Amino acid sequence: MFKTPTGEEVFVVDGHTHFWDGSPENQRNIHGKQFIECFYAYHTALSPKDKLWPLDKFSKYSAEQMYHDLFVDGPDDMAVVQSTYLTEFYKNGFNTIDRNAEIARKYKDRFIVNGAFDPRDGERALEYIHYMKETFGIKGVKLYTAEWKGESRGWKLTDPNAYRCFELCQKLGITNIHVHKGPTIIPLDKDAFDVHDVDHAATDFQGLNFIIEHCGLPRLDDFCWIAVQETNVYGGLAVALPFIHSRPRYFAEVISELLFWVGEDKILFGSDYAIWTPRWLVEKFWNFELPEDVKQEHGVDLTPQAKRKILGLNAARLYGVDVEAQKAKLKAEALAVAAE
């Protein structure tokens, strides 16, 4: 639970976290090394100096470390842990649903586990969606349209096989479709993260929510023009939010565009753990105020009510979390632990 300087408790759902293994032992080839080192470059470029990790810790951390960073030192009440397989680069996958389910079982009531699928697998993708729903009860997935598979270096949300997967997700109640549409990561191709296919898919699947992680950066304008017309398209702040430290003016411009076009009800907080830890992000976000000239130009403001929605209430709504019941449950569990 995050407490503001005035003592207000703010419910936080971290909408984009990872429990990955990018260690040398798990790297299949040079691309596994490139991928985790690129993540590390984002970490070192945008984090405060006192929040930096050594590369070996960053490449593979424990479940205990993650729990501590999110829920003990960190202000998160719940976290969505996303699955990203990248089996072309990693022997056992980068962070699979099985690995994510382990940490969720260990720390009950804290994690929402999301799955993943690759429509290029055809029938096997459909079978895997059924398996994830029946085994893990997922309500969402994370998709990586730039992921390599054999000779393919990406796919689009509008591919016929992707549509078959979306039809099944809609039927099974897997309604939250998180899609990485943002910065590229070596060796993946920037164009494979293009946002334009979101427009078609969101129009055709009104029963699904498309949470566009990283807000399409560096294609913010394209994302905003799509999200303003598609009521089921949301913006995830992972990667955008850390600029609040190193380039606050740039962050002010990004969040102002999002508030103007997308609105405070369709923006979600995500730390992108372990690239960044949530405490400093949430603290800086809560204390952040838009420059007066930016407010005047855009006609928006980042009010406390907008911050509450972005930090947790919007994600809670998408995932059907009863906030008051969840707060009561977590307090009861904390009291029980303290009494032991």
UniProtKB/TrEMBL annotation:
The keyword Hydrolase applies. Pfam families: Amidohydro_2. Residues 13-320 form the Amidohydrolase-related domain. Coiled coil: none annotated. One of its GO terms (molecular function) is hydrolase activity. The keyword RNA-binding does not apply. InterPro entries: Amidohydro-rel, Metal_Hydrolase. Transmembrane segments: none annotated. Keywords: Hydrolase. This is TIM-barrel fold metal-dependent hydrolase. The lineage of its organism: Bacteria, Pseudomonadati, Pseudomonadota, Alphaproteobacteria, Hyphomicrobiales.
